[in-house]
Write a structure and sequence with these properties.
The complex is a heterodimer. In chain A, 37% of the residues lie in helices and 28% in strands. By secondary structure, chain A is an alpha+beta fold. In chain A, strands 3, 4, 5, 6, 11, 12, 13, 14 and 15 form a nine-stranded mixed β-sheet that branches. In chain B, helix 3 crosses helix 4. Chain B is of the alpha/beta class. Chain B has a nine-stranded mixed β-sheet, sandwiched between helices. Classes of the chains: A alpha+beta, B alpha/beta. At the A-B interface, strand 7 of A face helix 5 of B.
Chain lengths: 430, 263
Amino acid sequence: MEKFDAIVVGAGPAGATAAYLLAQAGMQVVVIERGATPGSKNVSGALLFSQIYNELFPNFWESAPVERAIVGHSIAFLGQETSVTLDYRDLDPTHTPHNAYSVLRACFDPWMAQQAEDAGAMLLPGYTVERLLVENGRVTGIHAGGDDLLADVVVVAEGTRSQLLKQAGLRDDFYAGDVSIGVKEVIALPEEIITNRFQCLTADEGVAYTCVGHTGGVEGGGFLYTNKETLSVGVVVKIDALYKSQRQPHEILDEFKSHPFINRLVHGGKVVEYSAQAIHRGGVHLIPQLYGDGYVVVGSAARLLLNNVMTLRGMDVAVASAAAAAKAILAAREKGDYSRASLAAYEQFFKQTDVYQDMVTFKETYALLENKRLFNVYPDLISGVMDDMFSVKARPGKKAYRALRDNMHDELTLWQMLKDMAQIGRGLVR
Amino acid sequence: MKIVACIKYSFDVSEVKVDPATKELRLTGVPQRVGVIDKNVLETAVTLKEATGATVHGLTLAPAGAREAFREAMAMGLDDLTIIDSADLAAAGPAVTAMILATAVQKLGDVTLVVCGEASDDGVSYQIPPRIAERLGWPLLGYARNITLTGETITADRDLDSGMQRVEGNLPLVLTVTQETNTPRRPTLMDALKAKKKPVAVWQVAADLGLTPEQLQARASVTRTAQEGIVIKRKQQMFQGEDMAALANQLLDALVVERVVTE
């Protein structure tokens, strides 16, 4: 039977990164991907934060198929027919790498997989890994396409809906309440219209919006990113809350898109793609066991995501975890020991990464994302205050506090608001 | 014995859209892959290889950059693949394509059987296999099923509109198959692994086949044909009412008038 040094299951950012680093270090690596090409099965925003990619592939934006450099991040609170937006823009064009780049995964993932192949990894697309081979609690290989394939170590990088470890009895089921569902449309608009509409100087510049509110009262948020000739627009909502609301995911997206603020941004565009995907909610307390005898689990398969309201990070967390795992595997190779104890180094390495530190920093944000009022009370409240402050009306004007109290109506008590502020403070401020 | 399997990097026709205004086909952005019928070609060639110990060589006219698209074809059992780089041959007509392929078959040397699909997924000209046969001076055995090869003799059923025709022919010959000929195999993971190590050669039309642009130009006699989309307008007749039996009769009468059914 054929035996490799490492088998990587899944050719997404996590799998490709692990394969790239292991192959580069001279290991015999095979990557098995269920899509006909890497990225073909992928649903993602997709906003790629540069930091970690630049460490791995210096100046990647020059050769990788990125869409636009994200020079502006905005957070928008969407009230009924109102919006309050906070815009941040880094307008220094020489400031490379930019904080983030928008990508289309069907183009970007093949590029990443190509880096792994160029480093010597063997990519086998079009095959689904059906199960792990386990002997006495030790993962020894995989079964796919009617064949068994052995390896010293298996890197499980099969994304959100990873079932291999659960199926092999190596982890428990994940709790459904910790899962969100994302629905996304890709909307085509001429390149020039996007550049103008989003106040970009060139077709290489773009912006990203994070939106709070107007998601059908379901806990979650919306996003809108500019690609070259398309917009990626979507919502991510809690799956159990959505179930309770008895609404369909696409209805929530339609409602989000119908908000006048979003409608103005997508107006005239043509929907060219619709997709949906389960997304782990992410959070340091949700990180499962990351390693065992003969295996490591990386990226979304290990629920490694970071959501701090402002941004939802998946790809760079995936890459960081895969890089940490690869480092541990290479250390294990030195010792000739791929046991659980040896691969435990992966967790140590991962905990030293900036990404993990960020996950710890924003650990209180998870509770905030459970707070319904953030999504269905505050956007209107903020809008109401703004309205009172800006508008000239046939009645005496108000200072901010009066405007706030008046706009709280019966939906919110002062005490509740103070508690929420404390929660927001814990989550995002200090 | 050498078998050549001619396969094509084709448009995925299910993704082709028609421009509503001009009725022209929109081909930009349509994904390309090895055609559906080419799987039947490969299955036929590989089955014969397994039965006789022959070698099977893939032959295609495709952009050199498309080699990754042939992974599965290689995994299905080709021994090697020759890609004739089509980069400089924008939309070569059937005569040019057949000339190139036949020349390549001769260059491969000692080939005694060429297997083709009856027609490609996208071009559907049906011309390539007979033109290759003509150029090579070999007989053509078209629309074959139940193919057996004994020594130098091939026996097959020809799947014709009017029925089946059992024929026998001597090698060398050109064989065409249909999508009904067989059920293509699904290569295993091991097949895919082995395919990675199989050689792929890229030939240039001029440098490797010795065909000059003038020679090819001479074959490309038809340069452009009119291309018109057909618009079928529906009659959109509606029958409304409560009485189902009466409605059914009205429908039947309308169908008789349209000669969809006869009395």
